[in-house]
Amino acid sequence: MKKFFLSITLMLSSINLFAQSFEEAKQAYDNGDYNTAITIAEQLTDCPDAQILLGNIYIDGLGINHANFAKAMEYYQKAADANNAEAQYIIGSLFYSGRGLHQSYSEAAVWYEKSALNGYAQAQSDLGEMNYRGKGIPRDYTKAAKWFEMAAEQNDAKAMFFLGGMYNSRNQGVQTNTLKTAELWRKSAALGYPNAEFYLGQMYLIGRGGITQNSDSAMIWIDKAANDGCIDAQFYLGEKALSSGDIEKAKEWYGKAAEKGLQKAQMKLDAISNEQ
Questions:
Q1: What's the angle, vertex CA 175, arms to CA 174 and CA 178, rounded to 5?
Q2: Is the pTM of this model over 0.85?
Q3: How many Cα neighbours within 13 Å face the side chain of 144?
């Protein structure tokens, strides 16, 4: 019995030191002392968090002569093989973007699903979007709704926005329910998701989903969305300014949207220039 309690004590002590060592590596990383972070993390051979930290250092070439993608992938893969959800998501993201790997949405979906099944909210949200858009995998609204639901339960703002949109539509894997839409967009907007801010503003503008029509509240949300980078909100404010005769304000908002690649905003800017 004494040996049993001694082994438990030693095990708990080892876990505590293990966690403490990673915290030291993370603190060094956060302070920009990458060499110390590397030294500590490389000793934690069975710690997925340390492996991810090393992967982040090597992929960006922090504190070393140059980036080493192969080394970064080695560490990410070790953590992913240990069933670490964050590492699985990172590998999926690298396939999605094509950074250092052949770009492949289908491979990204495979890794996102591994991570999503391990409860990683961002993977659930991104996999939901891939199912929703049919990007690299067949479009499947039912699967999209499932993943968005799981991510939304973890307060993922993007998942709440997309799921709200599905409830606002027909034949998108869920029963149409504008009350649910308003609830989800409120939560997403409260977390600062720009698109949710804009569409919540639209609901206030017309009075929908149990929301009483209120133009002042509508413009508060639409202005916030535009300032937070929502191109639809920026274009909307451009249109509003143009209709009121405020050409300079219209050009400002069209310009912001055009910079993000919104073609119709650029066309509006060109039309204004031709008229002046």
A1: 110
A2: yes
A3: 26
